[in-house]
Design goal:
The protein is mostly helical and 96 residues long. The chain is 77% helix and 0% strand. The chain is built from 3 helices and no strands.
Length: 96
């Protein structure tokens, strides 16, 4: 069971890292395209990615606002939970 939890957490973390990288690579060209589109149409609200980079909240909770950050926290908690279950199982076996 531990192996499944830890392995799953690791694999999903790796997938998240790849997806994060792909998104970051696409953001710069899309920002340029949005800026050009905003200039051509006169619609300033077209610069969605630029506006998304602005932080609108403050505090500890506002540090967790991207999918990557939240996923990493979930992976850490799942991995720690798996290790805790393993440790409790070993303890129970040793006491018997």
């Amino acid at each position: 069971m531990l192996t499944l939890v830890v392995t799953s957490s690791f694999l999903f973390w790796r997938l998240d890292k790849r997806n994060s990288r792909l998104v970051k690579l696409a953001e710069e060209p899309l920002k340029k395209f949005e800026n050009q589109l905003a200039e051509l149409t006169g619609v300033a609200d077209m610069t969605i990615l630029t506006k998304a980079d602005l932080k609108i909240e403050r505090g500890v909770i506002s540090n967790f606002e991207s999918f990557g950050q939240i996923y990493r926290l979930v992976f850490i908690l799942a991995g720690a939970g798996g290790l805790a279950v393993f440790a409790l199982s070993v303890k129970r076996i040793c006491l018997n």
